[in-house]
Amino acid sequence: MFKVLTFNNISARGLDRLPRERFEVSSEIQQPDAVLLRSAKLHDWAVPETLKAVGRAGAGVNNIPVEAMSERGIPVFNAPGANANAVKELVLAAMFLAARNICPAWAFAQTLEGDDAAMNKQAEAEKKRFTGFELPGRTLGVVGLGAIGVNVANAAKALGMNVIGYDPQITVRSAWNLEAGVRRAHSVDEVMAAADVVTLHVPETDDTRGMINGSRLAAAREGLVLLNFARAGIVDDNAVVAALDAGRMRSYVCDFPSAALKGHDAVVALPHIGASTNEAQENCAIMAADEVRDFLETGNIMNSVNFPELVLPRNGSGDRLTVANANVPNMLGQISSAVAEAGLNIADMYNKSRGDLAYSVVDIDGKLPGDVVERLRQTEGVLAVRVIE
Ligand SMILES: NC(=O)C1=CN([C@@H]2O[C@H](COP(=O)(O)OP(=O)(O)OC[C@H]3O[C@@H](n4cnc5c(N)ncnc54)[C@H](O)[C@@H]3O)[C@@H](O)[C@H]2O)C=CC1
Ligand SMILES: O=C(O)CCC(=O)C(=O)O
């Protein structure tokens, strides 16, 4: 029986992928084999010795200590693209909100008083304060052309916008999915200088934290609309408020409320609802649950952010041994020697590395003795060993 600890509200459609005769699933489990979570922060969580996998029912993994998990040989899975449409739709809504001053106009309309005629008179007298702009011919700058950025870029092209994008590590898949005519920028600065609206779709990392700061805002076009549905830490809120107050920026629409932004007329800060649709929550939960289940049951790895992708159909007549280790010479030799010294035959094996980590799946004709497994566990460089019967 595998034990899966849930943090946050994980869609039941996802949890249903874990058959209860083989998986105990609860938010109360003490010694979990795996966790499933959304935005819960794991950085201060005391990682139990039993933990074998982390499944993020979403895209961003900045709430998870990925490096510390790697050091323990624990793969972290996420759900790439599963909530991209939900975020794209909210980003488009944000762009329309900003272009047409919908929030301040609506707030003004709430203050109208008197009978219908009086309200109408005030509305007509004041509506010029809310004159907006149309999107065709305007330039959208997209920083980060992954699952969400590509969707947003393509939708903006369909709305008649010019689109300029920056992503130094764009994948072949994203490049194929991008509409023709999206102009390639070579830096964030180039995007800032060219765009009327800039939207951010990068993960929060050491490289992207504080990416949009005072000097980048100073170099932006006059009247910039900035959209941030990526992560709070990517934008310096105080710099945004200063640029808005100086009249250099038109508005900031984001998914991350903060004390600095609260109450500002030109800011709309939503409560991190980019992925909050039933569809996205189901897609993410299903994907993360399937990945965690597959790993626990077979050792196969799909969509991990720290481990190599490795899928080996089951072969042989005995145990499956999986080993996560430091990516250094002679680890594979030591694994196969341990199996050979136990007098067992390897039916099939697959080894892949990613950065400092390597992962092997070894199908064996027979049952691995406990002392062999223990010896492998103690081998220098070995991070995690499992035997799947
Ligand atoms: N508001 C919300 O509820 C949600 C927020 N997000 C956030 O959006 C981020 C992006 O999500 P996806 O598009 O699904 O991820 P993704 O992994 O498909 O795309 C991220 C892209 O950013 C690029 N990138 C990384 N560093 C960069 C840099 N310094 N400059 C330019 N590009 C850079 C990568 O090459 C990649 O193509 C997530 O990491 C997460 O933080 C994601 C989903 C929901
Ligand atoms: O689960 C959520 O609502 C957060 C989604 C998110 O931020 C992500 O997928 O990176």
From TrEMBL:
It is an enzyme of class 1 (oxidoreductase). InterPro entries: ACT-like_dom_sf, ACT_dom, D-isomer_2_OHA_DH_cat_dom, D-isomer_DH_CS1, D-isomer_DH_NAD-bd, NAD(P)-bd_dom_sf. Pathway: Amino-acid biosynthesis; L-serine biosynthesis; L-serine from 3-phospho-D-glycerate: step 1/3. The keyword Nuclease does not apply. Residues 320-389 form the ACT domain. It catalyses: (R)-2-hydroxyglutarate + NAD(+) = 2-oxoglutarate + NADH + H(+); (2R)-3-phosphoglycerate + NAD(+) = 3-phosphooxypyruvate + NADH + H(+). PANTHER family: FORMATE DEHYDROGENASE 1 (PTHR42938), HYDROXYPYRUVATE REDUCTASE (PTHR42938:SF47). This is D-3-phosphoglycerate dehydrogenase.
